[in-house]
Amino acid sequence: MKYLPYNYYEFESNLTPREIKDRLVKSVSEVVKFSNLSVFQNDDDYFFQGIIKSDSFIICRKIDRRKDSFRAIFSGKIETKNNKSIIKIKARLKWPVYIFMFIYTIPLVFVCFVLPLKLPFDEFKFETKNFMILIPYAMLFFSYLLFNIPFQEDSKNTMEFIKNIIR
Fold first, then answer.
1. Which of 20, 87, 127, 138 minimizes the number of CB atoms within 10 Å of its CB?
2. Sorting pLDDT into bands at 50, 70 and 90, what band is 90?
3. Which letter does DSSP use for residue 144 in this model?
4. What is the pTM of this model?
């Protein structure tokens, strides 16, 4: 089971690296500025934006005002082996999201796993008022879903886009 939103993909194509680059250039708009903090896009009809070089690329979906921070960034390398192109792609979240995830979950981990070891065992009688101790566990589970579900959905959609381009 993965605990961090990170995926690695590798697949082959019969296209040359130049053909893959040309197809990516036709389907992905250039960005005005690309950094770990933000992506500013041009106004056009493209759904993806990024930086495409001869043997590598970095792309992501265009920013939607409702779900900006959980957009995955896809960095890929195109290699040639036995007259086939091998595309290696790493999908991850932006670094500020990882930092927020760390800051948000460390106190929850402390409350859920360290604090109960320090309290006397007789404090854990499951009465109505002591059911409040389950709230941090629910928040920890919610944070896991909050970071992983949008990432996995975006990752799946973007990989379908990339596979359709290089077929």
1. 127
2. very high
3. H
4. 0.75
